Amino acid sequence: MRQTLVAGNWKMNGSLEANHQLLEGLKAGVDAGVKSKVVVCPPAIYVAQAAEMLSGSPIAWGGQNLCREASGAFTGEISAGMLLDLKCEYVIVGHSERRALYGESDQLVAEKYRAAQQAGLTPILCVGEMLEERESGDTETVVARQLDAVIDLVGMQAIGAGVIAYEPVWAIGTGKTASPEQAQDVHAFIRARLAGKDAAVAESLQILYGGSVKPDNATELFSMSDIDGGLIGGASLDAESFLGICRAG
Ligand code: PEP
To answer: What is the three-class DSSP state of 122?
Structure first.
């Protein structure tokens, strides 16, 4: 049995005051009926605040991005070691906003995955198709290409040490959720593709769904056999909504 994981991606939202309230709300509510592993990924500048407030609680924290390099002249970047220094357990890699807005290629995403995993972080690798790609029947081709770039660089054992998030780009922040069946189809495709390379890794790997998950659709999505939780954007900014999703796991 795979444990459900629910990770909140705050994106570029928050302030010291707003984060304080959100984290207090999460800490107060996380014990009541939450069986999922819960993770929050604040903006990098607030990771220290999350680390201080969440230390000793069941909630883990992580980064939203990292540099593939370990240190040096890379102005504005943050390394895996720095995230570890702040006791991050997880880091999101290859979010569609990083791919689309900051030009992250499959190769760069794979190198970031390797940097995270080798340092001891658990990478949450995001994959997913754009609307035109779904409409032209290319969903599986795109997802396979994104996955294979990482597998080819790091190998299946390293994939087994991470988490995958299937996030159809057309469902992110749009209020349009993939139906549980649409999501399950792609999750099953991902698991089958991985099983072709290593059945044990495929069986134990957590595959999250992301894209407009809310408390009222989470139960149905998480009940699908290959959906092991969610990567949550908008709804992770409100303690009650996020806890509602966590309770669905
Ligand atoms: C995301 O940013 O990964 C995401 C899934 O966002 P939202 O839940 O807002 O669609």
So the answer is: strand
